[in-house]
Amino acid sequence: MRTRIFADENRRWWTLGALAFALFMIMLDNTVVNVALPSIQRDLGIGLSELEWTVNAYALTFAVLMLTGGKLADFFGRRRVFLLGLVLFTLSSLACGLATSGGTLIGARTLQGVGAALMLPATLSIISATFPARQRGLAIGIWAGVSAMALAIGPLIGGLITEHIDWSWIFFVNVPIGILGLLVGRVVIEESRDTSSDQRLDLPGLLASGVGLFALTFALIEANAYGWTDPVILGLFVLSALSLAAFVLLERHQRSPLLDLSLFRSSTFAGANVVALLVTLAMFGVFFFMSIYMQNILGYSATKTGAAFLPMTILIILIAPIAGRSSDRIGSRALMTAGMLCLAASLAIFSRLGLDSTFWDIFPGLIVGGFGVALVMTPMTAAALGSVPVEKSGVGSGVLNTFRQVGGALGIAVMGAIVASYVDLNGGRPDPASFIDGFQTALTVSAGFALLGAVVAWATIRKHRHMDAGELAEAAA
């Protein structure tokens, strides 16, 4: 009996190891690509819209399919869906590295997003099914730590690989990691699924939300190429509005909806999700264009660009857990409001950067921004999960992560539209002075989004229940 317990114990931690490998890849791909963008643009000869789709194809498919990925895992088996996602992610990473055109790279990045959407929800579900309650908090804490580490070192790894090897290796590096995770996962992960009788897939909801989000993002990215009054762009905006309205109507009447709209009756849950969308909308575009600014305008190397982001990411890692514990004592409202105000101040500092700025002009914005994001992220997650019933915390987490991913995709699209209205970036290297004008305007608009987030946080966030150790660790991610 004792030997069997010991074997089960070892199996659990091997399972966590396999999940950690996969999670590291997913989170790394959120940030590792940014510093390689100028190199990708030069080598493949692509314009701004294709460069934006290189990032957005991953973020958008990840966002649109994340809730569906969780449903598929519960329905068909978490181990099966996780391994399927891992295979797809690994193969598409190989395709990304081999890409010789913008279209091929964007297609492979789209498949990467599908793989990530299948994998990420399954990782937490497998942990919940594998670990007993006494160990679950520690396991999710390790899960959160791996996630944070991958996000933090992504820009630096991307810079080192791009400068000293080649940008394609930021994708090739996923292949051996994916193969190792697949081999270990097949052996150690046990199958589990939701066996309740009311499980079903919401295919109409998936189709309506996917069409709506894709049409909206495509219209924002391509509006400057076609013209804002072009029938194609106007038609896409109309299609987006109709599809998203249809999605809301469908979800109100589905027996097992993809998105449980009843959760939004809580002002705290609704407000936390709006803040999640606004904070990533403000920040993802900044990371995208700051990478271009540092390399194309200031002449930074890819490695130096990646290292420049470290003060912000390290602060986020250090402060986020403290902010999570503080939200239990004083609530999330004040922390989220202060964080969004700090983020707005950070973006205002960045908006004053010019042609002859130095790292020390950038540094204050990184520090203030690091504090701001850290003060928002964990309390925001704590507020969202704490405002829904415990049995729906998984759904609540999925909704929140979807809003975050959609906000990131829209942020790149909106900032890209603003910058492109000042200068034609599709011909290669932008005119520096015109780029700075568009860059500064886009950052000012992003600061406005952050201020709006502060108002939403103060107006909507109320007291919520304290979460247990496992939920707090998940919030820290």
Q: CATH superfamily of the largest domain, called what?
A: MFS general substrate transporter like domains
Task: Count helical runs.
Answer: 18
Low-confidence stretches: 1-6, 469-477
Name the overall outline: globular
H/E element order: HHHHHHHHHHHHHHHHHH
Gap between N and C termini, in Å?
Answer: 36 Å
By CATH reckoning, the class of the largest domain would read Mainly Alpha
Give a short synopsis of this structure.
By secondary structure, the protein is an all-alpha fold. The chain is built from 18 helices and no strands.
Layout of secondary structure:
Elements: H1 2-31, H2 37-44, H3 48-76, H4 78-98, H5 102-130, H6 133-164, H7 169-172, H8 174-188, H9 203-226, H10 231-253, H11 267-297, H12 302-308, H13 310-330, H14 333-350, H15 359-386, H16 393-420, H17 432-460, H18 469-476
Helix pairs in contact: 1-5, 1-6, 1-8, 3-4, 3-5, 3-9, 3-16, 4-5, 4-8, 6-12, 6-13, 6-18, 9-10, 9-16, 11-15, 11-16, 11-17, 13-15, 13-18, 14-15, 14-17, 15-16, 15-18, 16-17
Written description of the protein model:
The chain is an all-alpha fold. The chain folds into three domains: 1-188, Up-down Bundle (Growth Hormone, Chain: A); 203-255; 260-477, MFS general substrate transporter like domains (Growth Hormone, Chain: A). The protein has helices at residues 2-31, 37-44, 48-76, 78-98, 102-130, 133-164, 169-172, 174-188, 203-226, 231-253, 267-297, 302-308, 310-330, 333-350, 359-386, 393-420, 432-460, 469-476. It is globular and about 60 Å long. The protein starts with a helix and ends with a helix. The model is unreliable at 1-6 and 469-477 (pLDDT under 50).
